Amino acid sequence: MNASSQEFKISVKGLQVGMYVSRLDRPWLSTPYALEGFLIKSEDDAHEIGKLCAYVFVDASRGISPDPRFILIDPPQRSSRERARQELKALRKQTWTDTHTFAEEIPHAEQVHDELRDSIDEVMQDLYRGRNLQLDRLRESVDAMVESITRNPTAFSWLKEIKRKDDYAYHHALACSVWAASFGRHLGLNRQELSELTLAGLLFDVGKTRIDNQIMVSRETYDDRQHQTMRKHVQHSLDILNEASGVQVSQRIMDAVATHHERHDGSGYPAGLKNGSIPMFGRILGLIDSYDAMTNIRPHMGSRSPHQAVMQLYESRDRLFQAELVEQFIQTSGIYPTGSLVELTDGRVGVVTAVHSLKRLRPTVMLLLDADKKPLAEFESLDLGTVPDEEDGRAALAIRSGLPQGAHGIDPAELFLD
């Protein structure tokens, strides 16, 4: 039993109607169930779970308690997976809740976004000119962004998507800092930790300003020599941070920057660290960096849809990235993240505008095209979480698939920004 959440590990033979299943003995994505858990409403539900799992975890604070005869006790020595869960649990120092609605936060978030954009532009220009990194104004802008995201993370995530710039380096830096703040909020980091993780997410690639521009803009696949040159950006970033003016950079930020290309299985660089030897902030930033890179068009590589990128991360769990961290990130982003273009089961097309913490597979979608893929006269906001299910429990209306950026000629920036 987990005393803090009243969570019990039980044999599936002890499942009863009214129990809330909070975890399975396997990853959620390998099952037909939603990521957030579910209430057993019928004997058929219990039977279906029994066909998939040997044991599950039930939360007695959200449903009925199990019969003690079916409670399973783990051996004294914890498994590596349980240690990983405890490590993530130790990060949770604060539970953040939305204090503003999306509509209330968006005007403030837009102002902060534009100020941060200007700060990034100034910093990048200074670095390209060989000047030292000026951290004072950048840190102020980052702190303002963190404040916005702690109030409501959806507003900034939305702006990140619809205010994209063609400059990949700029957009990647901004997007990774937004993801860092949102993911850190989900993990329960305190305010100081959120600021450090977010600043690290903004700065981990600043060393690329010291890489030959011909390599940076090359549309060809990198050869071995170019790969080795690109890998030097990690040390360049550390050098830039060490030389920064205005504010001393914390060791936690330096360690995160130094290790954001290390990988769970030891295949990363520059030190080939693996598993728990990679600092937690480095693990977080490595995952975020990879996700955002996959969803953006880079000079030498195409992009995947956000849904495809999420699934790629999932397939990389316990290989490139810690499985528990991947699963937590998917809970942050949703299977279809904010800003994703999606096609519904009735053929209509829209863009995800909000991901719900309790119904991550059923976000709110702004409908743009009808079933014939023709523009709608008026955009309609549809909360899929409020659409009633069919009598057999299946979703009456759901997302059929994620779509890549630009599908059907849709540009959210043109649609939503004047």
From TrEMBL:
Q: Which SUPFAM superfamilies does the entry link to?
A: HD-domain/PDEase-like
Q: Which GO terms describe its molecular function?
A: phosphoric diester hydrolase activity
Domain of life according to the entry: Bacteria
InterPro entries cross-referenced by the UniProt entry: DUF3391, HD/PDEase_dom, HD_GYP_dom
Question: Which residue numbers delimit the HD-GYP domain?
Answer: 147-345
Please name the Pfam families in this protein's record. Answer: DUF3391, HD_5
The region annotated as signal peptide is none
Which protein, by its recorded name, is this?
A: DUF3391 domain-containing protein
Annotated organism of origin: Oleiagrimonas citrea
